[in-house]
Design a protein that fits this description.
The complex is a heterodimer of chains A (about 300) and B (about 300). With about 300 residues, chain A is mostly helical. Chain A has eleven helices and four strands; from the N terminus they run H-H-H-H-E-E-E-H-H-H-H-E-H-H-H. By secondary structure, chain B is α/β, with parallel strands linked by helices. Chain B folds into two domains: about 1-110 and about 205-304, 3-Layer(aba) Sandwich (Rossmann fold); about 115-205, 3-Layer(aba) Sandwich (Rossmann fold), CATH 3.40.50.300. Chain B has helices spanning about 1-5, 45-55, 75-85, 105-110, 130-135, 135-145, 150, 160-175, 190-205, 220-235, 250-255, 270-275, 280-285, 290-300; strands at about 5-20, 20-30, 35-40, 60-70, 95-100, 115, 210, 240-245, 255-260, 265-270. In chain B, strands 6-7-8-3-9-10 form a six-stranded mixed sheet, sandwiched between helices. A four-stranded antiparallel sheet of chain B has the order 2-1-4-5, sandwiched between helices. The chains are: A mainly alpha (about 300), B alpha/beta (about 300). Chains A and B meet through helix 6 and helix 7 of A and helix 4, helix 5 and helix 6 of B.
Chain lengths: ~300, ~300
């Protein structure tokens, strides 16, 4: 029992991070129908930004104000990463909008390769590590045994939940959210009704990059290690999560992220860690056979 | 005869060719300020193509489409603007726009030409009220100086948002959908969706409302309600309405001015009564030989 609960906590932590990245995929897909393959690398870039900012701040502040440093890293990292997200959209995707469908996709793959190589060049190919932080654990008795919850796991879950709350509010109740939903459903009509579609798309990329930035910081904090190639696997997992939940659906992305995180963790815990990715992707394949539009996706009904 | 004395829109020698196909050929007509103008013609006559040219979906092959805001369209002013090479005048009254030079979203937001399509294009997943508020996005943004605060609806900008909601509710009352305000637009019955589209178009505060077959798929009672609605909207806002319609009872009932086109060429232009008895129109609709038209024309001239 205690083992199970422990894995549940670990799975939810990992799933939160996947969920945050998955939202970036799903929002961009929703609004312009394109898979932003560079999003995983934006996440990796964000982890590096977080690492650099954190090390700098610890130099300046001295190890005294860890909480303050983390908050500054979070905000500054979000600002810098969203700038990247905005520039990527402007340079690599917007000029190709209205071109044939595959053009922005290829451009995204190119951007992904560019970002990982750029980081490899400027940061070097070796893993970058960070001293463990927030590693104190809370111990709860469960059944006969006990379960540990690390402070950083708690932080990850709380930050994720808070961000999702904010995002939900923005999408549901603000002008920006309404414009996004309108563009998602009928971009042409939205533009005819006075919605600035380009601006809305830019803001969507910025929001996606912000969430990826938080995910990058949390990843850095949780694992304490990052390398230039770390955008790929978490990126693909998060994309899988978005597809599993139903691409285009925000709650779907979160649900998908949590499920992928849980599947991976439980598979590693009860079977063999070597096959955890196989398990995650197999579940995806099985779900898509029976629910082609994902768990929470709206099926495309074609009227004839 | 406001289309002659006080025009709002002037289409001049408009031609649209797709490769070798001439969809519209040197078409000219005007739309009177505050009039309900119907554009009719047999299937494939080029009615929707005219709409697409007016609203910027197509760039016309040649010709001019001028629109005046806030006053009568003057020939001299159109010529001056055409020669200046600009898209629109700035800060004069009446404000002039050359629609063939403008992009579709600018025609919608600057020239204030709203349109609906033959197929319904609501945002089905958004609520009825939200559909109407999205249409006021630009107004809302302008009220908040296009700031992020406005986008996120911070407290300072709540007043603007409240005004948008009030306007939306007023239009819901006009189209009789207050009770459904919070339902997804896609759940409304067909006739109600048609009315909601018109309400949404009106929320953009247009000077010209272009409706592409608003009565398509409506039953007789709903069509009668639609004519009532359009009359009410015109009386309330003074908006000029240009509509394409196949339902002749609607056209004859509602229109101040009817323009008939066939094979992209105007064959008649006048009041509903004038057009109804025009032999060319009758021939176009009933399919008569050219000779019979000639005979009918001769007959209508002779006592």
């Amino acid at each position: 029992m205690d083992y199970f609960v422990q894995q549940l906590i670990n799975g939810l932590t990992l799933g939160s991070i996947y969920g945050l990245i998955a939202i970036g995929y799903t929002m961009v897909y929703g609004i312009i129908g394109m898979v932003n393959f560079a999003h995983g690398d934006v996440f990796m870039l964000a982890a590096f930004i977080a690492l650099i900012l954190f090390l700098l701040l610890m130099q300046v502040l001295g190890g005294l104000a860890l909480g303050l440093a983390l908050v500054i890293v979070l905000l500054l990292g979000m600002a810098l990463t969203s700038l990247w997200g905005w520039v990527i959209e402007r340079l690599a995707y917007r000029p190709l909008r209205g071109s044939f469908r595959l053009a922005p996709l290829i451009s995204a793959i190119g951007m992904s390769i560019f970002l990982s190589n750029f980081v490899q060049l400027v940061q070097g190919p070796r893993n970058k590590t960070l001293e463990p932080i927030l590693s104190n654990v809370l111990v709860f008795p469960v059944g006969e045994g006990s379960v540990t919850l690390a402070e950083k796991q708690l932080v990850i879950m709380v930050v994720t939940a808070a961000l999702l709350g904010v995002l939900w509010y923005v999408v549901r109740y603000t002008s920006l959210g309404r414009a996004q939903r309108a563009c998602e459903q009928d971009r042409k009509m939205a533009s005819l009704l006075g919605v600035d579609v380009d601006r809305t798309v830019s803001l969507t990329f910025i929001i996606g990059a912000m969430l990826a930035s938080v995910a990058g910081l949390l990843w850095m904090m949780y694992y304490g290690v990052v390398s230039f190639s770390d955008g790929f696997v978490p990126g693909v997992k998060a994309f899988t999560a978005a597809v599993l939940g139903g691409i285009g659906s925000l709650p779907g992305a979160v649900l998908g992220g949590l499920l992928i995180g849980l599947i991976e963790t439980f598979w590693s815990a009860y079977f063999t860690i070597d096959y955890k990715d196989v398990a995650a992707f197999s579940i995806l394949a099985i779900v898509l056979i029976f629910l082609p539009s994902g768990l929470l996706g709206r099926p495309d009904v074609e009227k004839v | 005869m406001r289309w002659l004395s006080d025009p709002l829109l002037a289409v001049d020698h408009l031609s649209m060719r797709f490769g070798g196909l001439v969809a519209i050929n040197a078409l000219s007509f005007t739309v009177g300020r505050g009039d309900i103008t119907a554009l009719i013609g047999p299937n494939g006559a080029g009615k929707t193509t005219v709409f697409n040219c007016i609203t910027g979906f197509y760039k016309p092959t040649s010709g001019r489409i001028a629109l005046a805001q806030g006053g009568t369209l003057e020939r001299g002013a159109i010529e001056a603007l055409t020669r200046s090479g600009k898209k629109r005048t700035q800060g004069v009254n009446p404000e002039l726009f050359l629609l063939e030079r403008m992009a579709d979203h600018a025609i919608a937001s600057e020239a204030r030409v709203a349109r609906t399509f033959q197929n319904i294009r609501l945002f089905p997943g958004m609520t009825v009220l939200e559909n109407l508020i999205v249409a006021q996005h630009k107004t809302l943004m302008a009220a908040s100086d296009y700031s992020l605060g406005g986008l996120l609806g911070l407290a300072k900008y709540r007043a603007a948002e409240r005004k948008a909601i009030d306007l939306a509710k007023a239009w819901l009352e006009v189209v009789g959908l207050v009770a459904r305000a919070d339902d997804p637009a896609g759940d409304l019955p067909y006739g109600a969706q048609r009315r909601l589209e018109i309400a949404r178009a009106m929320c953009t505060n247009p000077v010209l409302l272009c409706l592409d077959e608003p009565a398509a798929g409506l039953n007789n009672r709903e069509s009668a309600e639609l004519t009532q609605l359009l009359r009410g909207i015109r009386a309330q806002t003074g908006v000029s309405i240009l509509l394409i319609e196949h339902d002749m009872s609607v056209v004859m009932d509602i229109s101040d001015h009817v323009v008939v086109i066939e094979y992209g060429v105007k064959i008649a232009d006048g009041t509903a009564d004038e057009v109804k008895s025009d032999p060319k129109v009758i021939a176009a609709y009933l399919g008569v030989d050219d000779e019979e038209v000639a005979v009918a024309e001769a007959g209508s001239v002779a006592p």
